[in-house]
Amino acid sequence: MNQFQESMYKLIVETSTNLPADVRRAVNAAKAKEDQGTRAALSLSTIAENIEMAECNVSPICQDTGMPTFVVHCPVGANQIQMKRDIREAVQRATKDSKLRPNSVDSLTGANSGDNLGPGTPVIHFEQWEKDEIDVRLILKGGGCENKNIQYSLPAELEGLGKAGRDLDGIRKCILHAVYQAQGQGCSAGFIGVGIGGDRTTGYELAKQQLFRKVDDVNPNAELAQLEDYILDNANKLGIGTMGFGGAVTLLGCKVGVMNRLPASFFVSVAYNCWAYRRQGVLVNAATGEIQEWIYEAGQEVPMKDTAGEEAAAAAERSGQQEERREIVLQTPISEEQIRQLRVGDVVVINGHMHTGRDALHKHLIDHDAPIDLNGQVIYHCGPVMSKDENGWKVRAAGPTTSIREEPYQGDIIKKFGIRAVIGKGGMGAKTLKALQEHGAVYLNAIGGAAQYYAECFKEVEGVDFMEFGIPEAMWHLKVEGFAAIVTMDSHGNSLHADVERNSLEKLAEFKEPVFK
Ligand SMILES: O=C(O)C[C@H](O)C(=O)O
Ligand code: SF4
Q1: Which of 103, 244, 439, 459 lies at a 20 to 30 A Cα distance from 155?
Q2: What is the pLDDT of residue 325?
Q3: What CA dihedral angle connects 511, 514, 516 and 517, to 10 degrees?
Q4: CATH 3.20.130.10-classified regions of the chain
Q5: What is 327-501's CATH topology?
Q6: Over the stretch 57-85, which tens digit does the pLDDT of each residue have?
């Protein structure tokens, strides 16, 4: 088993950097369904480009490399203690090599362990089986989509859908509601795993296990196969679209499992996974620890470059079929006047400087001064993957994080420091919208998960504050060139997110009538 640790390292690197072929096919199919030139189609093109870049750079597809979760099946007699040690060392090494972001945070002190090891991380499940080889599967499910997991206890009364009973139709309603409540915040278009039954713990486990199924498999249970097809067809009618920008594709896959329950409980647990659906697996020789076989088809089998689509987009642009879109280049510091000219739907390209800030920083800034002058500046909700060598720090992966978590603070912080633009993903709420209007600021939506694509825009790391918060939470001062994002909340009270949410709730209500009797 002396090769086992190396095999685990390879598994981690492949999972983090190379999206498997079945997931790529689903993203390509979504791209083909969206009308060329729309926001959804352009976002999917960025996602596709990012997938290629990650493979080529052998760098994380998304900066949030998630909760490393290993599921190991091994023959009787295999040394689980040694395997666990090897997995932990491989995780540590992959973190050091910037293939994983340091993601293990002390829940009470906020201290980042720096190497992805800590109580509860990584997650390793062992199961014995009667085969000769070891099967190791890994899923890297990010925190933003994890926050969108949801568990229903039936019977329930669901927004838009009314009563959901303890039957297949009630389950149908829960799953549709789960997709609706995620909006674009889990980086749609997403995949969902559903667990019917169990208790609160095993129900969620079953839901997550479904995410190890192949995208194109067929559920052996005919009733569940029918439910999966129904959900996939109909969830896409909600019109939430990629990143919640509106569009024809919201869901890329739905897998449902079932287990027994207690008479008093009826849980429907839903695990939501973003498009950056990073899971791989290997069959390992139990004597040597070497990889014998990869379980999911490799990413390179399905290239993401779509020349036909790009030509069609260019043609659509020439013939004026494209959505109305203005592109405005802004140099920081930005003035109120420049901001007041922006409207929802505009594409803004930022040059100059950007400062990252997420949960720890926002909490801190509420009752402290900022370490730099933020007047006219841009805050980027981002927890990057960084590396350091003799030339200093380098940005390795830097997509946006879910902005809604900063909703309690953002409006006050914008006003207190004179910030003119906030970049993130998934949109923000009414309090921030009001502050944008009062102060003269905008919310810009970047494409979630496109961490390689945005990392290229950061030309220099000019400094860092609050390293004590850990790498993802520190305030990085970055020199930026050509960072493009879409205005989704402007300084005139408009919010694309509020519009899409309202429209999708209306559509959700169309699924109120029973389907499975
Ligand atoms: O932590 C992050 O970088 C992003 C997170 O996965 C999110 O989706 O908000
Ligand atoms: S940022 Fe988006 S793509 Fe990345 S882990 Fe979070 S939900 Fe997934």
Answers
A1: 244
A2: 83
A3: 180
A4: 327-501
A5: fumarase (3.20.130)
A6: 999 999 999 999 999 999 999 999 999 99
